[in-house]
Amino acid sequence: MEKYLQQTKSDCIKIVLYGPESTGKSTLAKQLAEYYKTDFVPEYAREYLEKKYDQYGLICQVNDILPIAKGQMNLENNATKNNSLIFCDTNLLTTMVYSKIYFNYCDPILERCARSNFYDIYLLMDIDIPWIKDNLRDRPHERKEMFESFKSSLIKNQKKFEIISGNFNERKEKAIRIINNLFNFKV
Fold first, then answer.
1. Distance between CA atoms of 45 and 54, rounded to whole angstroms?
2. Which residues contact residue 100 at a Cβ distance below 8 angstroms, ignoring those fewer than 6 apart?
3. Degrees (nearest 5) of the Cα angle 75, 103, 99?
4. pTM of this prediction?
5. CA–CA dist 12, 82 (Å, integer)
């Protein structure tokens, strides 16, 4: 299983949109991919769990975590083959944090890969936009605690990150400034 959770060697710049539910990760990942004319890696867990919920009325269980992680890494590794820059709507560190929050457990293989996989920068999405309900989101009153869990995982694992806040336009503008400065892009 471990080989399915590791990144394929690549020179591709990988930027992760990171943070709790309903913070605009998917929206910003798509906007940035469009702006930089590249691909974004969607959140595999959403597709997987929506299908499970729609077909069986079931929510995420601990035995779903490794298939979700494997699917996420497959999408990411495929995207790095044809791009020099990608935006990841999520990553294994996100899956690890959710596993610990919801199940008070994380598979050691997932945890090891989540900690060792490399991303050039994490864009930590703030909770200062409205929470939007859907079939998968369930923690509207725990946003601050969730945000702190995600932030603390970045600090604990010594990951490079910037906090992205403000309305959707401000978030996009701030992310572009950070990316352009970090990688000396002139778009």
1. 14
2. 106, 149
3. 25
4. 0.94
5. 9
pLDDT, tens digit, 9 for 90 and up, residues 46-94: 999 999 999 998 889 999 999 999 999 999 999 999 999 999 999 999 9
Whether 156 has a pLDDT exceeding 80, the answer reads yes
Residue 114 near residue 41, CB atoms below 8 Å: no
pLDDT exceeds 90 at position 131 = no
Mean pLDDT of 10-20: 96
- Token code pair at residue 99: 């596993």
Element (H, E) at 123: strand 121-125
Tell me which H or E stretch contains 178: helix 168-183
Q: Give yes or no for a contact between 40 and 46, defined as CB atoms under 8 angstroms apart.
A: no
**Cα–Cα distances in angstroms (integers) from residue 62 to residues 16, 49, 74, 103, 163, in the given order:** 24, 12, 20, 7, 29
CA–centroid distance for 158 within its chain: 16
Distance separating alpha carbons of residues 24 and 165, to the nearest angstrom: 10
